TrEMBL record:
High-level lineage: Eukaryota, Viridiplantae, Streptophyta, Embryophyta, Tracheophyta
InterPro entries: C1-like_sf, DC1, Vacuole_Formation_Reg, Znf_PHD
Name the UniProt record assigns to this protein: Zinc finger PHD-type domain-containing protein
Pfam hit, one: C1_2
GO molecular function list: zinc ion binding
Keywords for this protein: Metal-binding, Repeat, Zinc, Zinc-finger
Domain Zinc finger PHD-type: 27-90, 138-201
Source organism (scientific name): Nyssa sinensis
Entry keyword annotation includes Repeat: yes
Organism domain of life: Eukaryota
Amino acid sequence: MELEHRSHEHPLFVYEAKKGDANLSDLCQGCEKAILGSAYKCKEQQCSFSLHKKCAELPEDFKHPLHPQHALYLFINQPYPSGCICNVCREIRNKFIYHCAYCQFDCCASCASEEERKIEHKSHKHPLDLMQRPALFHCDGCGTEGKDSSYLCTDCSFWIHRNCASLPSTVKRVDHNHPLTLSYSLSHEYSKSEVKCNICAGKVRSPYWVYRCAKCKYFAHVKCATSKTEPARK
């Protein structure tokens, strides 16, 4: 199946990005998140343009509950010279944006997606609700505290960053030979020993999430593994 999309000059073909295939460089050009699930990819071999299927099929306009007075219109090329801050999640966005020219209200592609307002996440047994405003909290995923967009379990107060909820199941780093797999806690064999992050050299604390190598004793905080930070010198 081919698609002509106004955001790109070449035809796109549909494919399925399976868990474990994700690479830090494979980002959706709509929502700027890792490509997982149904997606479109450029047919040109030398072009890496990709879009989630849901981002490729976003409506041209919609009304957000935080801005009911006017419709928001989809801009493929941003109406600002250097990106903008989404008024829903408060994160800086550089790709697709829904924009109100009257009020300068902006909503990113992720926040516009209905299916992201309530999710099932394999790290937790209950559904998680997207918080409509950034909140100051301690993340049960990465273990850090800050004021960010988030998902909350209303049954048991499990709370994670929105970015943590969309972490890829595997990442590849240039400073390690093997792919790193996301684990939602340290395995029992390491739970009572001191484990250090091989990137920042800080302590990896249970029960927070960690990227680890299945072939060797390599561990990394989720924020370290998904950044371009070079390993600390020993």
